[in-house]
């Protein structure tokens, strides 16, 4: 490790490693990159504990387009990210699709409005009436459903840590340095960041600093005298076994079931021979950064009743595993914040993904790399999700948040 780098990235999970990869693979960049990661086991990283899925069914065009690039990247991951002398990394992308269910006029209107946005962006999404839904997924009880939105292709789930470690391995092959350490101070002279201090000693001079520190994004920003409205919010996931699994019964997509989001917010999807499920918390307080105790009651109180109501197949189910992870929750508008600070221009945010960081990591890494190399976006313009809206208290709302 040197004492000076052109770019220092704070946080080496999927966002930080994506930035590192897209910088190092760009022939127009010949600088040095250091990634500082406090826990390279990533045991409690949002990446490792996520539900590992990607969708195009969003309400904002920019989020649809971010996912479209992410899907393309995931599908070509093995060829793009192969490290010399190693086997191709495979992400086992299951193109099962997403299925949103609506049973109130308000929910129906949102699905219709979102659908117009998605179709305008070229997403392969259809709206189904009740009879069409029943024909496609005969295991569902649909008498209360007024409309459904189904992604026929380019949506599904994949290997979360495979994506993260793939980025990291390729970035290291391309010359990026990783260090196990923690940034405890950021040096700033006026409107310029000059470097970082590490917990285990050492001062590193930096040309640009990228905040990719997940739920700790606000702590990192404060070290630079800045702020970002990001805090840790707990989400518990449950894996359950099903006495009579409905997987294979669908009349579409070769019998495969999608990731279904019930009108209650409860969701589930196939996970091998099991199912993965979760729900929005009834109460959603900020939690301690080290609080990963699952909310066990959510399954009995919310998830099981909703699923049993939706399908006879889900009446006899049993939890076989559960864990809690954290969203890096953007309290302003639940959307990613990517871009330079308007005054401290060599400090770049890549934060506040609110549960979408894994699927949005490829486009985020590419965008941040373009900002550093070219001074602006060359491919997908991420200006709408820039930091300026935080300063102006101007929410950029996304309606389709799970």
From TrEMBL:
<dbReference type="Pfam" id="PF01266">
    <property type="entry name" value="DAO"/>
</dbReference>
<feature type="transmembrane region" description="Helical">
    <location>
        <begin position="7"/>
        <end position="24"/>
    </location>
</feature>
<keyword id="KW-0812">Transmembrane</keyword>
<keyword id="KW-0472">Membrane</keyword>
<dbReference type="InterPro" id="IPR006076">
    <property type="entry name" value="FAD-dep_OxRdtase"/>
</dbReference>
<protein>
    <submittedName>
        <fullName>FAD-dependent oxidoreductase</fullName>
    </submittedName>
</protein>
<dbReference type="GO" id="GO:0005737">
    <property type="term" value="C:cytoplasm"/>
</dbReference>
<feature type="domain" description="FAD dependent oxidoreductase">
    <location>
        <begin position="6"/>
        <end position="371"/>
    </location>
</feature>
<keyword id="KW-0560">Oxidoreductase</keyword>
<dbReference type="GO" id="GO:0032981">
    <property type="term" value="P:mitochondrial respiratory chain complex I assembly"/>
</dbReference>
<dbReference type="GO" id="GO:0016491">
    <property type="term" value="F:oxidoreductase activity"/>
</dbReference>
<keyword id="KW-1133">Transmembrane helix</keyword>
<dbReference type="InterPro" id="IPR036188">
    <property type="entry name" value="FAD/NAD-bd_sf"/>
</dbReference>
